[in-house]
Specification:
Chain lengths: 367, 367
């Protein structure tokens, strides 16, 4: 059996939307981007959605809109995808790391508190694998210290925290529609906010910093981060599938949980009682990870490690974070985490095969 | 009659490529991006083409590959699209402006010479409207002072300078495939180079700075600048049309030249004997530009002014270029330039209507 780690769910609906778009001859940012923005904003119950061409671009737009600049500090988790940190560096601000919670793998509010200085401008948590961090605590810290909170919800469309949807926390929040994500616009992302002025500024930054009422007149430094209508066409068709996709992933996660519940030598995913988990990642902690992956790969099973190297150990950050302290939880999780396959087309037979093969691997290498 | 300034030429060929791509279910960066890169590289006679998601991204990748950083100076024309300057600012380097040639509207090599300091690292000329600047002079300056030369060839696919194709000059060159460009991949761009190491670094930077042999391991600060296969599908179909598109634009330019040859009060486009002009812009200099545009618009004719505001007068650059001197040629050109409609589907009747209406406007307002 050949089981990929992820597989986009692209079919007739997507094809139809794309054909309609090309036939309209309007393929760059236009009515379909607007429609996609409106659909997602309505679903999230938020006022503004600004579509861009990647989740990374969404973070850059958000930080520029918050006017984060040289000398400012932004607190991010030590355990995150590189883009969270890079977006801070694009502003020539400093990413300041905080360690993570050993159960949710999300930023630890206590360590955030420790890292606040006079230069701190923003807290930038992620929702690991889609699961929300402790937003009550993080928002309280932000309020106490008069800091912005920007939610990097790249993986979190469809999640909730205490009944409020993820991708809506803080001053601004972002999502990614990368091809491996829950739903995709091939490449893409969005910025979300209830603040009219921030939304307007995000739209300007996305479109080369151009004044919307004056062609080639640029009040701010922006970028070309426009989403195309061709990509939005895919996003619109995908978005209609979201409930179905979330339900399927929930079922796969349950099946995995059930399959592994008596398995020694592995830590199952912890799900906080306060969240609804969209299951972008199904993460387990194991020892001897390399051997386990090798074994699973040899049996045709694709595995992702999100992520094997925390930010302070990335070679790109050696200079930037020189003299940085250690982050013991992030380091241990990075060494032990493993993400099992999950995709919409996954059959029960495929799920059972993953469960049985993973159990064999754990029994061989984790005892 | 309703005549837009530009109109993308998207038809059955593009639709077929897009359908094939969606049906293959591989829509993100993959085989079609590779094919598009190979087609363009072969046409240009250059070793490497690295496709990205915009012309702006191409400039950012190129400057990052050249390791331009804080404290460095990059000499750019005072008269250019904002992205040329922004890309320098993304590196927290300083854009240093040089004035332009009053005939080609391209960077003036003599003024480049004046602007070189110990901090200068790179000369970044554009090909205005697709027409090459004086590359012999610019390359000599770069060599004499040990500077990089990066060609911003956003508008220049299909052009030549002394028999060598534009988009191939200097250490690195870029192009844009924005929807209004000669050919389009909806949004997109490429970086070109003959240097294997620079090409490898550009590919890494485009893909989040990730080591191509080690997932989630990032030796450099990159970005998500990947072109999608869906966009490349459009690019591939468009690229096949390039000879036809160039020929059509040449004919429109000739017809305009012929139509305006006896018209007083207007300066016709100058074409250097050393270039082949791909005619992205058909630029004229006029007085009373606002009135002329108003008149043409009232007659249903779309006009572009590329560009009305030189870089040092852009509000986004007020702080960055504080105390900057004046650029008299750039300022005059920005005040007087006007770009007439040009697109593949343009009929002779439409061209004649533009010619006659423009003549009326000039006779009314430029005497």
């Amino acid at each position: 059996m050949k089981i990929p780690w992820a597989m986009p769910y692209i079919g007739e609906e997507e094809l139809k939307e794309v054909i309609d778009t090309v036939k309209s001859t309007w393929v760059s940012m236009g009515p379909r981007v607007k429609k996609f923005e409106e659909m997602v904003a309505e679903y999230l119950g938020i006022k503004h959605a600004i579509a861009v061409n990647s989740g990374t671009a969404a973070l850059d737009v958000a930080l520029k809109a918050l006017k984060i600049g040289p000398g400012d500090e932004v607190i991010i988790p030590a355990f995150t995808y590189i883009a969270t940190a890079n977006a801070v560096v694009y502003q020539h601000a400093k990413p300041v790391l905080a360690d993570i919670d050993p159960k949710t793998f999300n930023i630890d509010p206590e360590d955030v508190n420790e890292k606040i200085t006079k230069k701190t401008k923003c807290i930038l948590p992620i929702d690991y694998g889609g699961q929300a961090p402790d937003y009550d605590a993080l928002l309280e810290i932000a309020e106490d210290h008069n800091l912005f909170l920007l939610e990097d919800g790249a993986e979190a469309l469809g999640g909730e925290y205490k009944g409020k949807k993820t991708c809506t926390f803080g001053d601004l929040a972002t999502v990614s529609f990368h091809a491996a994500k829950l739903i995709t616009s091939v490449e893409g992302g969005m910025v979300f906010t209830d603040d009219d002025k921030l939304a307007e500024l995000c739209r300007i930054i996305r479109n080369q910093g151009e004044d919307p009422n004056r062609k080639y007149y640029h009040p701010v430094i922006g970028h070309n981060y426009r989403m195309s209508d061709l990509h939005a066409a895919i996003g619109i068709a995908q978005f209609r599938r979201l409930p179905e996709i979330l339900e399927k992933r929930r079922k796969i996660a349950e099946r995995y949980n059930e399959g592994f519940k008596d398995l020694d030598g592995v830590e199952l995913p912890y799900v906080s009682e306060h969240v609804k988990h969209p299951w972008f990642f199904y993460p387990l902690l194991v020892d001897n990870r390399d051997k386990i992956i090798e074994y699973l790969n040899s049996k045709g099973i694709g595995i992702r490690v999100g992520w094997p190297v925390p930010i302070h150990k990335q070679p790109a950050y050696r200079e930037i974070l020189k003299g940085e302290q250690r982050y013991p939880v992030a380091e241990e999780v990075a060494e032990r985490i493993i993400n099992l396959p999950m995709y919409h087309a996954m059959t029960e037979e495929e799920q059972n095969y993953v469960i049985e093969t993973f159990k064999e691997a754990v029994n061989k290498f984790c005892r």
